[in-house]
Amino acid sequence: MENQDYNKAEKAVDNTENSLRNAANDAKWKISDLADKARDYINEKRNKDEEASQEDWFDRVKANAAETWEDIKDGASEAWEKTKDAAEDVKAEWNKKTN
User: Fold this and answer.
1) Are 75 and 23 in contact (CB under 8 A)?
2) One Pfam family of this protein, by short name (predicted)?
3) Residue 16 neighbours by CB distance under 10 Å
């Protein structure tokens, strides 16, 4: 297999890594933001003269986590397809050279 084929496979892996990093970085609420979001939730409830509850807060976090998971899953799926396609291309090139 030629060097360019290895480079193509390595680039596909790099693209996969970058796609997954971007998906994680684009998550709706990062862990570092949760404390601020919790304070905002408590203040929102206080302003409406409603009781803040942990269960309600967890429901909000859970809904956001579900949305975030979908974003990450989409990015991971795209990365998988790109890597799979590149691997198939490399395999086809290898088969051409060895047959």
Assistant:
1) yes
2) TMP
3) 20
Q: Among candidates 30, 22, 28, 17, which has minimal Cα distance to 79? A: 17
**DSSP per residue over 8-57, as a string?**
HHHHHHHHHHHHHHHHHHT-SS-GGGHHHHHHHHHHHHHHTT----HHHH
Tens digit of each residue's pLDDT (9 = 90 or more) over 43-87:
999 999 999 999 999 999 888 888 878 877 887 888 788 777 776
Q: What are 12-21's pLDDT values in tens digits?
A: 777 777 777 7
Whether pTM exceeds 0.70: no
